């Protein structure tokens, strides 16, 4: 039996798991879960509680190490956010959250300076106001930017803390909109045109790279530190047991819904640019051709608002209420900037509807069905755009992640998109994280073999269009 430790950080929670390979399958044991959220400092900036996040990661790894014999550990997380490191190899400054409104101002300024065409021509990345290149541009006057030696994406920051190695993994680097997707190298010309200090960018490495070993944490010392496909979506896509990926798409369903296909090459044509399709890097030289759709963030924020007002509606109850409210047909655009910041989401949805003369939801069930229907329509629009750009005809959608447990949304998605939906794995990100470590360790030969193991490791449901 081969055992590995996986750290998976999402934008609202994190977990640490043990992955064990035996008997032709991968079994997962989640040892530790924790919640976290952004905090607002006195100036109004949105920050991550980094001390909390790292302390919980460390606690989880120590607990996992007590009950396993891990060969290595690897970390994946949400994309685009980063921390600065000084020349003395100290983390300096705060870890800003991607929903900070400073990024909207910076993105407009940098796009006006460089032009969208120039940015997209080499990066092939969807224009999102929080991409790292805009965050760095927004940081240029901060003391930590001025004094920093390097910046690292969050998984690489944890790898650095454990191993002392300063290096950036390419799948997450591609989300910065500062990497040439075709060459898998930093776009030095673009970075310098943006007026960002190129020396801040560290060397790059591919998923599966052995970075070093843990040092300075007695319970973990000597465990190998391996690079996962450190963008959590890249790990999740590595965890999909595709049948024929030429006709299959995926939706990684969580706070965000990442909708796309796996390809051998990027698509950066005029049509791809017009559709704002993104080309993020994947495992074994692949490219994740996709678009970000605001996902369960809408419902999560509704639930948070209701909890704060004394009404805690559980997800299972919300789904049942949504089923009962299926006659309510109002649609919203999940990607409207109005819905991006945290806050009173029910009020924002109502305001959106009233401004457009739409019937506004008024009950939790109506809010939930509005969100589910709107997501399914956004998925169809996105898949149609990607099919047109890539020339592929999609006849199956894999829905993975926590959102794949929502049978109502799965059925609505099959109905609206007009193709079969296949669920799982729910834990695709953990499976993909473990798979990359197993390949690095020589426990499995390649991604195809790892995906065969993953296929044997979970039970899927199918939803056909009605």
- Give the % helix: 25-40%
Strand content: 15-25%
Contiguous helical run count: 17
Task: Give the N-to-C terminal Cα separation.
Answer: 44 Å
Principal-axis shape equals globular
Strand order, main sheet: write it out. Answer: 18-19-17-16-20-21-22
Low-confidence stretches: none
Task: Specify Rg, calculated over alpha carbons.
Answer: 21 Å
Count every beta strand, where a strand is a DSSP E run of 2 or more residues. 22
Kindly describe this structure.
The protein is α+β, with helices and mostly antiparallel strands and about 475 residues long. Helix 2 packs across helix 4, helix 9 (about 230-240) packs across helix 16 and helix 14 packs across helix 15. The mean pLDDT is about 95. The chain folds into 2 domains: about 1-230, ATPase, nucleotide binding domain (Nucleotidyltransferase, domain 5), CATH 3.30.420.40; about 240-425, Nucleotidyltransferase, domain 5 (2-Layer Sandwich). Helix content is about 40%, strand content about 20%. The strands form 6 sheets. It has a 7-stranded mixed beta sheet, sandwiched between helices. Strands 3-2-1-6-15-14 form a 6-stranded mixed beta sheet, sandwiched between helices. It has a 3-stranded antiparallel beta sheet with strand order 8-7-9. Keywords: ATP-binding, Disulfide bond, Kinase, Nucleotide-binding, Rhamnose metabolism, Transferase. GO terms for molecular function: ATP binding; glycerol kinase activity; rhamnulokinase activity.
């Amino acid at each position: 039996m081969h055992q590995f430790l996986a750290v998976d950080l999402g934008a609202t929670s994190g977990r640490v798991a043990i992955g064990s390979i035996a008997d032709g399958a991968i079994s997962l044991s989640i040892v530790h879960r924790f919640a976290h959220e952004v905090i607002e400092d006195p100036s109004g900036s949105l920050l991550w509680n980094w001390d909390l996040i790292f302390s919980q990661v460390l606690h989880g790894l120590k607990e996992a190490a007590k009950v396993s014999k891990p060969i290595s550990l690897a970390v994946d997380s949400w994309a685009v956010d980063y921390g600065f490191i000084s020349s003395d190899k100290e983390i300096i400054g705060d870890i800003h959250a991607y929903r900070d409104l400073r990024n909207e101002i910076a993105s407009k300024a940098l796009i006006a300076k460089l032009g969208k065409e120039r940015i997209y021509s080499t990066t092939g990345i969807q224009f999102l106001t929080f991409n790292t290149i805009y965050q760095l541009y927004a940081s240029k006057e901060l003391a930590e930017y001025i004094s920093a030696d390097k910046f690292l994406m969050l998984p690489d920051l944890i790898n650095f803390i454990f191993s002392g190695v300063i290096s950036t993994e390419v799948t997450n680097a591609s989300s910065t909109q500062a990497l040439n997707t075709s060459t898998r190298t930093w776009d030095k010309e673009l970075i310098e045109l943006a007026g960002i200090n190129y020396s801040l960018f560290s060397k790059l490495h591919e998923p599966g790279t052995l970075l070093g070993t843990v040092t300075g944490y007695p319970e973990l010392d000597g465990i190998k530190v391996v690079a996962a496909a450190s963008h959590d979506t890249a790990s999740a896509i590595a965890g999909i047991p595709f049948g024929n990926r030429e006709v299959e798409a995926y939706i990684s369903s969580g706070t965000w819904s990442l909708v796309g296909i796996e390809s051998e090459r990027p698509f950066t044509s005029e049509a791809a640019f017009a559709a704002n399709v993104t080309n993020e890097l994947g495992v074994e030289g692949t490219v994740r051709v996709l678009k970000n759709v605001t996902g369960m963030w809408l419902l999560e924020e509704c639930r948070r608002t209701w909890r704060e007002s004394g009404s805690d509606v559980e997800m299972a109850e919300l789904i049942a209420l949504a089923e009962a409210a299926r006659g309510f047909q109002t649609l919203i655009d999940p990607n409207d900037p109005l819905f991006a910041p945290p806050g009173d989401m029910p009020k924002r949805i109502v305001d959106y509807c009233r401004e457009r003369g739409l019937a506004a939801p008024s009950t939790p069930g109506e809010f939930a069905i509005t969100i589910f229907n709107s997501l399914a329509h956004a998925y169809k629009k996105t898949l149609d755009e990607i099919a047109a750009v890539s020339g592929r005809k999609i006849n199956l959608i894999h829905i993975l992640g926590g959102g794949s447990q929502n049978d109502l949304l799965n059925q609505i998605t099959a109905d609206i998109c007009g193709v079969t939906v296949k669920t799982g794995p729910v834990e695709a990100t953990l499976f993909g994280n473990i798979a990359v470590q197993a390949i690095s360790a020589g426990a499995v030969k390649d991604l195809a073999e790892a995906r065969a193991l993953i296929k044997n490791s979970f039970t899927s449901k199918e939803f056909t269009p009605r």
